[in-house]
C-alpha cells in the first residue's frame, strides 16, 4: 500500500478541487495524440486525427479524455486502495485493449504538464512531485494485472 | 528525428520569451527535477541544492544557455553542442534516462510561465527539440 503524507493528500485535494475533469481530460488526451502521434494507434475509430486542430476539436477525443480523467478521479477518492480500485481496468487494458503500459506513463506526464499550464506558479515543485508520485502509482496499478 | 520548418519556428518563437527569464526558468526546472526525481541529486553531491541557492541558479543558467545555443543553431544542433556532447560522454557520464526527466521538468516550467503560448503544437515541437538535444548529448556515450 502506498503511503501518503498529510501534505501530499492536501496538495492532491487542492489541485483536484480546481480541475475541470472535462476540460483537463480532453486537453491531456489531445496533447498525448499530438505530441506522441504513435499513440493514435489505439484510436482508429475516432475519425479525423489528421492535424492538431482536428484532434483538439474531435468530439470522440473530448469524450474519451473526460472518461479517462473521471476514472483517474477514482484513484484520488481511494488513495489508500489504488491497486484494487484499478484491478478490473488493468485487466481490460491488457486483455481487450492491448495497451503498452508505457502509454500510462506518457499520459501521466502529459497530465502534469496540463496542470502546470493551468495552475502556473501555484503548481510548485513540491506540488509537481506529489502529482508525479500519484500518476506513477496509477500507472503502476493499471499495469499490475498484465500478464 | 528531424524538426520540420514549422517546428523550428515554434521553438524559436517561444525561446525569445523564455530567454528573458532563462536563469529563473533554468533554476526552477532543476528544482522540479530534484524534487520529483530525488535520484538525480546523486550527480550533485558537491552542490547546495536548497531553493534559491546560488549554485542552483548558476547551474540552471548554464543549462539554459546551452539550450539557447541549440536554438540559435537549430539547423545544426550536433555542431553547436559538440563540446558538451563530449563532456557528457567522457567526464559527466550522466545516465541517459535523466535527460528525459530534465526535459519534462523544463516543459513543466515553460508551461507554468507561458500557458497561453504553450499550445499543443508548441508543446510537441519543444518535446521533439529537447529530445534532439538529449540525443546529441548522449550520442558519444558508446
UniProtKB/TrEMBL annotation, chain A:
The keyword Metal-binding applies. The keyword Kinase does not apply. Residues 3-147 form the Globin domain. Keywords: Heme, Iron, Metal-binding, Oxygen transport, Transport. GO terms for biological process: hydrogen peroxide catabolic process. One of its GO terms (molecular function) is oxygen carrier activity. Pfam families: Globin. One of its GO terms (cellular component) is hemoglobin complex. Heterotetramer of two alpha chains and two beta chains. Involved in oxygen transport from the lung to the various peripheral tissues. Belongs to the globin family. This is Hemoglobin subunit rho-like.
UniProtKB/TrEMBL annotation, chain B:
GO terms for biological process: hydrogen peroxide catabolic process. Keywords: Heme, Iron, Metal-binding, Oxygen transport, Transport. InterPro entries: Globin, Globin-like_sf, Globin/Proto, Hemoglobin_a-typ, Hemoglobin_oxygen_transport, Hemoglobin_pi. GO terms for cellular component: blood microparticle; haptoglobin-hemoglobin complex; hemoglobin complex. Gene3D superfamilies: Globins (1.10.490.10). Belongs to the globin family. Involved in oxygen transport from the lung to the various peripheral tissues. This is Hemoglobin subunit pi. It comes from Columba livia (Rock dove). The lineage of its organism: Eukaryota, Metazoa, Chordata, Craniata, Vertebrata.
Amino acid at each position: 500500500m502506498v503511503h501518503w503524507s498529510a501534505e501530499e493528500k492536501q496538495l492532491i485535494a487542492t489541485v483536484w478541487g480546481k480541475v475541470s475533469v472535462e476540460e483537463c481530460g480532453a486537453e491531456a488526451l489531445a496533447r498525448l495524440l499530438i505530441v506522441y502521434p504513435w499513440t493514435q494507434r489505439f484510436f482508429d475509430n475516432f475519425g479525423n486525427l489528421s492535424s492538431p486542430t482536428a484532434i483538439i476539436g474531435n468530439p470522440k477525443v473530448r469524450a474519451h479524455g473526460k472518461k479517462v480523467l473521471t476514472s483517474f478521479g477514482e484513484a484520488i477518492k481511494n488513495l489508500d486502495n489504488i491497486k484494487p480500485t484499478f484491478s478490473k481496468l488493468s485487466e481490460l487494458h491488457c486483455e481487450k485493449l492491448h495497451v503498452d503500459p508505457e502509454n500510462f506513463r506518457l499520459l501521466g506526464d502529459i497530465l502534469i504538464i496540463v496542470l502546470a499550464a493551468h495552475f502556473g506558479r501555484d503548481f510548485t515543485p513540491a506540488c509537481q512531485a506529489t502529482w508525479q508520485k500519484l500518476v506513477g502509482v496509477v500507472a503502476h496499478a493499471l499495469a499490475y494485472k498484465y500478464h | 528525428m528531424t524538426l520540420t520548418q514549422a517546428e523550428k519556428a515554434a521553438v524559436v518563437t517561444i525561446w525569445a520569451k523564455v530567454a528573458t527569464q532563462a536563469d529563473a526558468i533554468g533554476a526552477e526546472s532543476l528544482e522540479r527535477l530534484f524534487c520529483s526525481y530525488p535520484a538525480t541529486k546523486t550527480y550533485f553531491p558537491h552542490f547546495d541544492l536548497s531553493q534559491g541557492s546560488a549554485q542552483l541558479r548558476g547551474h540552471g543558467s548554464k543549462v539554459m544557455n546551452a539550450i539557447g545555443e541549440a536554438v540559435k543553431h537549430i539547423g545544426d544542433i550536433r555542431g553547436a553542442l559538440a563540446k558538451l556532447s563530449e563532456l557528457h560522454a567522457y567526464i559527466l557520464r550522466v545516465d541517459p534516462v535523466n535527460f528525459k526527466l530534465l526535459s519534462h521538468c523544463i516543459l513543466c516550467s515553460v508551461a507554468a510561465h507561458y500557458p497561453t503560448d504553450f499550445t499543443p503544437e508548441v508543446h510537441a515541437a519543444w518535446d521533439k527539440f529537447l529530445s534532439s538535444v538529449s540525443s546529441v548529448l548522449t550520442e558519444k556515450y558508446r
